[in-house]
């Protein structure tokens, strides 16, 4: 039998059909009572429904070429998890924009155009390379969110923390699926690495545009102190992007595989917190 999956045997990619009641929290600055930090995560959320559909489509395109039954099962788990994430973030985004007066069509429009451009100009294997790259980013962000020494989400509204932790844990469970499919169908190392650079650029621009729109609607766009605190939150010592850097750049190693970062203990810790249902 051909082995194409490199997800460890102790990991199960289990779609958890969760609903999180977050509408009260979404009308507030739910992370640390801070407009920029809240907008960062809200803007990330805007990218998920369209982005995760693109990921699922990109992986499914190649599913028929996968011979390893373990990887086939993991593809099903991956599609199931992303399907529930899309549903919850779609509701999140609609509720957020309704409550706070943000323009969802504008916010999603940029990403829709980028995806349409990608479909028109890039091949299916390149779509898969973008997917593997963005799955690397979501996995290391999830790892950071669930890390033992990360106090950030402890400052969040509990319902919001539950949603983001659920998403983070499942991103870690399926972090190698698109990657293993990419390798199995012969994706090159050069394309894989280039895709991460391109995907990072588009994601960051999209999220910053989203934050700018949200802070403008919140009438905080000219609050320079807030922006200063925001850049510190992202980039200074202990900032979330800075903490991600070592894990991010590991993707550029030739022998890289997502499970070289063993996140078993973080998944186990999260599972222990799930003994009480969140909804
Ligand atoms: Fe997801
Ligand atoms: Fe994912």
Detail the topology: elements first, then pairings.
Blueprint: H1 23-26, H2 35-60, H3 69-100, H4 104-121, H5 124-146, H6 158-173, H7 177-184, H8 189-217, H9 224-235, H10 240-249, H11 264-273
Helix pairs in contact: 2-3, 2-4, 2-5, 2-8, 3-7, 4-8, 5-6, 5-7, 5-8, 5-10
How would you describe this protein?
With 279 residues, the chain is mainly α. Helix content is 67%, strand content 0%. It has eleven helices and no strands. Helix 2 packs antiparallel against helix 3 and helix 3 (69-100) crosses helix 7 (177-184). The longest helix has 32 residues, at 69-100. The termini are far apart. Residues 55, 82, 135, 138, 171, 174 line the site of one fe (ii) ion.
The ligands bound in this entry are: fe (ii) ion
Q: Note the main sheet.
A: none
Average of pLDDT: 94
Number of strand segments: 0
| Total helical segments | 11
C-alpha geometry: globular
Cα-atom Rg, whole angstroms?
A: 18 Å
Order of helices and strands: HHHHHHHHHHH
Question: Which secondary-structure class do the elements indicate?
Answer: mainly alpha
Approximately how much beta-strand content do the residues carry? under 5%
Termini gap: 42 Å
Helicity range: 55-70%
pLDDT < 50 stretches: none
Can you tag this structure with a few keywords?
279 residues, binds fe (ii) ion, mainly alpha, 11 helices
